[in-house]
Design a protein that fits this description.
Blueprint lengths: L1 H36 L7 E3 L8 E3 L5 E2 L1 H7 L12 H21 L1 H27 L10 E9 L2 H13 L5 E4 L8 H9 L3 E4 L12 H19 L15 H6 L3 E3 L3 E2 L2 H4 L2 H11 L5 E5 L3 H16 L3 E2 L2 H7 L8 E3 L4
Parallel strand pairs: 4-5, 4-9, 4-10, 5-6, 7-11, 8-9
Antiparallel strand pairs: 1-2, 2-3
Helix pairs in contact: 1-3, 1-4, 5-11, 10-11
The chain binds nickel (II) ion.
Length: 341
Amino acid sequence: MKKQILREKHKRVTGKKRIAGLLLALLFGLCTQTALAQELPEGYHWVSEGGPSGAKLVDGQGNEVDYATLLQENPNLANGASGPAALETADAQQQQTDEAKESESLGTETETEQETNAQQETDAETESEEANNDNPRGIDPQKPMVALTFDDGPYAPVGNRIMDVMQQYNSRCTFFVVGERVPLYTKELRRMVEEGFEIANHTQNHKYLNKLGAAAIRSQVEQCNAAVASVTGVTPTLVRLPGGNSSRTVLANVNYPIILWSIDTKDWSHRNTQKTIDIVKSKVKDGDIILMHELYTATAAATEQLVPWLVEQGYQLVTVSELIAYKGVTVQPNTIYHSFH
Ligand code: NI
């Protein structure tokens, strides 16, 4: 149903897009240079230091910088023209330019194809809604499967690489995102939803929930869910605790299933592609939940090698929610899960 709504939406905008296409192509061509010129000050970059935590902006000396203050001082960074969204913005502009060219050359063929697809989907849904909607990738519940999970994003330069390789191997994964980063990467988040990746909740500000009171814990979770829903229309159903830190109060106030992990790659700590690969290869088994982080190019590179390897070993790569469903488990709120073996 959700897919169909998205498809309808897509169809509606296609016409307008085509008309605006050439104009946009021209306009973006002119704008791209300006946008790229307004990058973060030299040496500034986003990191996750001192354990698995949310991204922090640091200057060339590694001193933490408040992004909100930087935005005030450099208004040109706003609106995704630069700052952490710079790469994504440039990518988006390129993609829209490409799309404009594409729709021009494909003409009505694209539209006809979409109509046919939509019709076929409606037919299939009527015949076997379950088969079509619940198992679109033909996952075999009898065969091994694992869930790769990526925390602390969104972060488009890494997230898009992860999604690209997943797509190539008919695979999906779960992104546990931090709510305060959601407005910076809206396009990436919409891609996740449109392509069947799962967005899950990693709190609003990546605070260790065991240090907070009941109301603040609930607020951290609900704010993140609201942020994701406002951008994608989809509300996350699973929560991962920052640092994995729990307490009796945390358990009592996180009213969703809490998903931790069975394999910790420690990618945030060593930032080494081969180490991440070796840890997964030496430990992986059916039903595992593998912890990685979306912030590092080393992790993107590791994923690009791990996905084909895992598929070759016979593992199906699924989201956490898919893992739960295909393993036939019923999960409960206020409860911690490490794996679904
Ligand atoms: Ni984290």
